[in-house]
């Protein structure tokens, strides 16, 4: 076999191995269907000011994060719910097929899986692109057989100037002191509230108390009923703001004085 043939064969095996783990994760989450995919309408928005960041809730666990320097990130990038623009960076988790893609857009510059596809341990990412730094904090997930897949997913942290955003991903367990130290100071937290496929709602309240972010944005709630149950549980802890649009522009200076839950439309 020639050198070129061996190289092509090696590349094919590498690509097959890269997504071997999530092939077993077939989504049983309700409402996760191709028709959930976002429309690809052109985005026409005002430019962001210095130190500002725009968050758009695309749906499920996917947010589009845009920096003033023009860097775009899609969280839990998958084949069902995608932003209407191609991100520069895509983060993924393998808990269900609605949290990762087996065929990410080849125009994406950095695809960051929240697990180590080789199975040798935890994923380790620390990437800087323009005015954005992305790093991950590994967490465990439950398998379909009820076992624990240690370091099987990640929380991703996005640092833009003085602003720190944490996406908790498909979190299945309470956070320990080591997780909190690794997260560091969090200004904005994006967290799942379904209470069944991820951590139960009471457990998520304890996570939010520990993280102490000034802005808390729920995701992964499938419908208004689940979201409202969570908001009822949290009503004595934090005020709630409901926005009419799925996007919000924030900066360090514009964060609310007190920790606040901000609900963006979507599911």
TrEMBL record:
Alphabetical list of InterPro entries matching this protein: RibonucZ/Hydroxyglut_hydro
UniProt KW keywords: Signal
Domain of life: Bacteria
Signal peptide stretch: 1-25
Keyword Nucleus: no
The keyword Signal is assigned to this record: yes
PANTHER family: UPF0173 METAL-DEPENDENT HYDROLASE YTKL
Listed name of the protein: MBL fold metallo-hydrolase
